[in-house]
Amino acid sequence: MAVNRFGRLLTLTTFGESHGPAIGGVLDGLPAGMPIDLNLVEECMNRRRPGKSPYASARNESDSIEWLSGMYNGFTLGSPLAFLIRNSDARSTDYQDLESVFRPSHADYTYSKKYGIRDHRGGGRSSARETAVRVAAGALLLPWLHQQGISILAYVDQIGLHRTPTLTFSPDQVYSSPVHCPEPETAKKMMQAIETAKSNGDSLGGTIRCQILGLPVGLGAPVYAKFHADMGSAMLSINAVRGLEWGEGFDMATRFGSETNDAFVPGESGIETLTNHSAGVQGGITNGMPVDFRLAFKPTSTIARPQKTVNQKGEPITMSATGRHDPCVVPRAVPVVEAMAALVVADHILAAKAYANLWKP
Amino acid sequence: MAVNRFGRLLTLTTFGESHGPAIGGVLDGLPAGMPIDLNLVEECMNRRRPGKSPYASARNESDSIEWLSGMYNGFTLGSPLAFLIRNSDARSTDYQDLESVFRPSHADYTYSKKYGIRDHRGGGRSSARETAVRVAAGALLLPWLHQQGISILAYVDQIGLHRTPTLTFSPDQVYSSPVHCPEPETAKKMMQAIETAKSNGDSLGGTIRCQILGLPVGLGAPVYAKFHADMGSAMLSINAVRGLEWGEGFDMATRFGSETNDAFVPGESGIETLTNHSAGVQGGITNGMPVDFRLAFKPTSTIARPQKTVNQKGEPITMSATGRHDPCVVPRAVPVVEAMAALVVADHILAAKAYANLWKP
Amino acid sequence: MAVNRFGRLLTLTTFGESHGPAIGGVLDGLPAGMPIDLNLVEECMNRRRPGKSPYASARNESDSIEWLSGMYNGFTLGSPLAFLIRNSDARSTDYQDLESVFRPSHADYTYSKKYGIRDHRGGGRSSARETAVRVAAGALLLPWLHQQGISILAYVDQIGLHRTPTLTFSPDQVYSSPVHCPEPETAKKMMQAIETAKSNGDSLGGTIRCQILGLPVGLGAPVYAKFHADMGSAMLSINAVRGLEWGEGFDMATRFGSETNDAFVPGESGIETLTNHSAGVQGGITNGMPVDFRLAFKPTSTIARPQKTVNQKGEPITMSATGRHDPCVVPRAVPVVEAMAALVVADHILAAKAYANLWKP
Amino acid sequence: MAVNRFGRLLTLTTFGESHGPAIGGVLDGLPAGMPIDLNLVEECMNRRRPGKSPYASARNESDSIEWLSGMYNGFTLGSPLAFLIRNSDARSTDYQDLESVFRPSHADYTYSKKYGIRDHRGGGRSSARETAVRVAAGALLLPWLHQQGISILAYVDQIGLHRTPTLTFSPDQVYSSPVHCPEPETAKKMMQAIETAKSNGDSLGGTIRCQILGLPVGLGAPVYAKFHADMGSAMLSINAVRGLEWGEGFDMATRFGSETNDAFVPGESGIETLTNHSAGVQGGITNGMPVDFRLAFKPTSTIARPQKTVNQKGEPITMSATGRHDPCVVPRAVPVVEAMAALVVADHILAAKAYANLWKP
Questions:
Q1: C291: alpha, beta or left? (left if phi > 0; alpha if psi -120 to 50)
Q2: What DSSP designation does A300 have?
Q3: Which residues of A touch D24 (CB under 8 A)?
């Protein structure tokens, strides 16, 4: 079924297997006349790119993008913007032994059983390599969102047991850290934890926090297209995400309404709330306050230690991973979270525009 | 924008405002020849119905369903199955004072600002009354799912600080409890906590756990239509949901891969996993093991205590709620969670059927 | 599969079988604050209603509409607008003999074979009775379209061999004719032809022409959502339509480009074309000139004469129709054509609004 | 808005401007394990390719396809199948003079007005070059359709006033003709007519007939997804199509029901109809008889003769086309019609599979 597509008015269709000729995407529904900032795209791509630090996979992909359509003289044309990224450093030989093996907690078994065929090399279509396409697509939207006063910032909130203190951070603080943790002391501990896990042939999970400032009031809808439901769907589609908290999330479940209601007050530019337990969304629709959510990532399934599993015939075997992989995917997932957030926000802005000022009763 | 619809091949479109003439739904994409069990629908509706216990709103809706189309002689016709529920006990006078007031943490402000007009009575379109339609729709699918060996069971996992022990429960244990908590001792404490909150003019949050057994391998897809992303979107569209954990959720973020990987083993009816940290989904596709997730609900926004807020002119006022409302929505949300789960499962089964056995390579 | 829905941003979902409890629809994606003119809806419904003249079915449906949601104090709420129409004059006994018969050129055979079950009474879901819902939905949009200077007018262009001269007509001229033919002499001949066919136990086909004035430049898209492709899909979904000509249609196929190209000229309110062979659409996008298309309807399949056919067992039989039916559906299809045109136009206007003035390069 | 996509379960998303880096497509929703026949794709591409005969544009595109994803060892993977075609022989200098000119009956004016920006070179996104992508996508489906006993054959039915006699033709007869007209005498006259038009600096319209044999009973749906409505939408999205007749089309409008009804009779492999006025579809659903439809194409808008028009400032000018173009697009449109028909058929087969044999009442 045709489900390799995300969005409503603005859609991203992605394609490509990890070790096939290329991965890529088609961004359809972009406003025409939007300026393109390819440097900004490259910056975002670099934040996700492997092969840069000991905390990420050693696969060295240049991830340079070939632009195929949809732009002319530096502006969008209103037609689909397509692009591709070659898979240049695919060492498929690493995966030869895995052709008939179902790696634990990977998609090997479920993909094989569902489709009856699979490209086992590097995880094929199930590989997180697909998220490179999302980062490129999301980055293309940033100039347009920035012009509207909207900013999106994600950072690594927790790795293992090390948690970033709850403060306000700048993009520079986040991006200058090899693990995308803006607080240097915590970042250092996180890096040590990753190194230790790696040297133990193990992997680590973590959490990411994402904040969106400057959203207008009115994005979302009361029932199925709640802003946070669409955002949640976007986030849960990112590999390894296993939990989502909107604002205070599960802590809200233990509270009284008198503690968690946000009182409305007259603000400088309209109505505001005194507190922000709603994390920017009420009744499924943005209220102009900061959006704030947190995601849980499970540890990478690929670990170097020998593990018990079965082969395609269902026979018990013991395997050890040999491909290059991330001991902790969380740092590299930060730009993916930002990109998916950008796609959701842009899509909702377009939907809201379709209905604005149509009729004055 | 047309977003009052959920699903892909099987869709539920809902309509209706809390105090308008009726709420209702159109279930389109049902298989033809499916038997209808209206008693089962009524049972599910009763579990959600208000006016039954001191732990829920006193609004006494019979919630009797008028069936309009799509069935003939007890079977589905393959055409849209439409139904409506009259709003019989709507005391709109309770809301007269609220016409110009934005209630804290409700949808009043965001709806007004987005649409420029609203039906303030009982929350209008933003009311959780819409979820009655979902329960009816989900219940219609149960005979078909049961025939395939699939069962869905949700229960109240936590209210305030009282948490249900992690055990295996039967539907009877859940449904016989006025608060849908299957463990009697915990249920008693939850009821006391709700009563206390109510007498304090306050409200309470909580969590629901949902388990799905008997799913086939192969529901979902590798990228955007991951089974748990679609399920997450369904759950986040339920009023007051603020968090979702798939399996161990946020706890996974603190672990090592060697602790959370699920080893494959030969099982009786095919390949199984020794543990179920994946909670039934790997690479976005079901693996045949039990699905298991947990949801956080914030406390009801409507509380009897006086609260500071603003009116439509943005002027500060103090208000006290007078409408009938739930001191804790979590017990009544249990059948809503089950219904949305049924819709997601049925939709994914149909999608999988479209592609099964098409070509034997 | 969920396909009882038409439109993109503005969608109409319909439900109901001809002799079931009710037919109805959900119009989702309406702008909020749009005024409702129920009298205008009734007028449009009356134009399609059976039982009014000897030229249409004697089934006497009041077709009074019950409004269920989406409006408040005379304005749309931005939520789904749902409504239903009871099937009050369904004489299902007329169809008792037909339960096991496949009527020639009807949907009986194909529906049975596809779904394995059918409501044979009055054609069930395949009945043109469903188009009453479309008329109501289209009529709701008219005040909004009129305010934007857009008008839609269809009329009967041909019945049998009698063709309406190509002139400009007013709505009054069309609507005052019992067969919706605006030219009285031709109308008289058409009525005679219908009466003759009826008395012979036969039925007649015909054509409808539809013109849309006042459309803005820019509705449609270059590739798959061409304005005339979406309009064509809408028109081909009307029962009995077997052909569509955009502008001069098949005559264009016999011409030279030098004869059919439309020269651009400066006009009063912008660029116009000297001729209108394009019938208002160039490259799939409206150019501000009148839209003009023609539809062919086949003769009604239900005829009183004895016909050879087979029953559900595949055995040859001879049958004679006894239900009430139209000797010629074309006059009653005029408001259906107008309604579907209104839905397409409104949907495209909303899509265009989403992208207007987003970025000034 | 994201509308560069065709289909429901099986979708084709296309991208690319005529003189941009590349055009291409993503075919999503293909069954996994389907064999790929790249030679067959090339054959179909050759039938549409320009630069081969004096009856088509001299633009010499190799139209070689670069396959990017979705296949492995000669079979589909169930993941999106993406491909691109470079624009190698784009002589954009031909279009330099046209940067500020609105060519008569082209998309220049409407695209500019809608999007505020355009790539004027070769028609940009509005160019029929996009249809090369459709041909490739449709050709990929042919082995799967052939295996199911389905064949699709289109041919040139009329050019100018020369019409192909109504006979049964083989693919060889069609494909061996430079103008895709299977009857040699008529083909000769068509070629002469095209040459004459070309030497006069003019262009010609024509019609194409398409027949589909071997379809199962049950494709389509009773209301909006009628098989012929979806097919019509597909056909009207092809550049220059201005009319569609299903079966006898407009001739049906002049007939009596007693002449056009198809009597059911017991056939060898089930129920058949004695005649086929329904052209294979009854009540929107295929009945197993041959599908048969005809399309009208307007003459190419690009002609060499001087024409009056306006420039972007709205000032009157006279222009003469200098780009390479087709004096008659109809012959090259034949494989495009076949490809769109293949996409519609395959999509409907998948939809039917989702609902087959789900429940035996």
A1: beta
A2: P
A3: 68-69, 82
Q: Which domains does chain B have, with CATH numbers?
A: 5-355 (3.60.150.10)
Q: Which of B10, B68, B125 sits opposite C22 (nearest CB)?
A: B68
Smallest CA–CA distance, residue A321 to chain D, in Å, is: 23
* Beta bridge mates, C208: C156, C295
CB interface of D with C, residues 196-215, below 8 Å: 197, 200-207
C353 and chain B in contact, CB less than 8 A: no
Q: Other CB atoms closer than 10 Å to residue A199's CB: what's the count?
A: 10
Q: State the best of D1, D10, D353 to mutate against chain B, taking most chain B CBs within 10 Å.
A: D353
State whether residue C82 sits within 8 Å of chain B by CB. yes
Distance (Å, rounded) from C-alpha D191 to C-alpha D197? 10
Q: Do B282 and A315 touch (CB under 8 A)?
A: no
Does residue D285 sit at the C interface (CB-CB below 8 Å)?
Answer: yes
Strand segments, DSSP code E, in chain C are 5-6, 11-15, 22-28, 65-67, 71-72, 75-76, 81-86, 101-102, 151-159, 162-163, 206-213, 241-246, 264-267, 270-273, 281-282, 285-286, 291-297, 307-311, 316-319
Q: Which chains touch B (3 or more CB pairs under 8 A)?
A: A, C, D
A271 inside 8 A of chain D by CB: no
D275-307 burial string, b = 16+ CB within 10 Å, else e? ebbbbbbbbbbbbbbebbbbbbbbbbbbbbeeb
**Contact B39/B56 with Cβ under 8 angstroms?**
no
Three-state DSSP class for residue D225: coil
CA atoms within 13 A on the CB side of C184: 3
Total number of residues shown for chain C: 361
Pick from D132, D130, D152, D131: nearest CA to D141: D152
Q: Which residue of D has its CA nearest to C256?
A: D204
DSSP notation for A325-339 = --S--HHHHHHHHHH
pLDDT tens, position by position, for chain C (361 residues)?
999 999 999 999 999 999 999 999 999 999 999 999 999 999 999 999 877 777 777 777 778 999 999 999 999 999 999 999 999 876 767 777 778 899 999 999 999 999 998 898 888 999 999 999 999 999 999 999 999 999 999 999 999 999 999 999 999 999 999 999 999 999 999 999 999 999 999 999 999 999 999 999 999 999 999 999 999 999 999 999 999 999 999 999 999 999 999 999 998 888 999 999 999 999 999 999 999 999 999 999 999 999 999 999 999 999 987 766 789 999 999 999 999 999 999 999 999 988 875 443 3
Q: Which of B2, B67, B69 sits opposite C9 (nearest CB)?
A: B2
Whether the Cβ atoms of residue B70 and residue B33 lie closer than 8 Å to each other: no
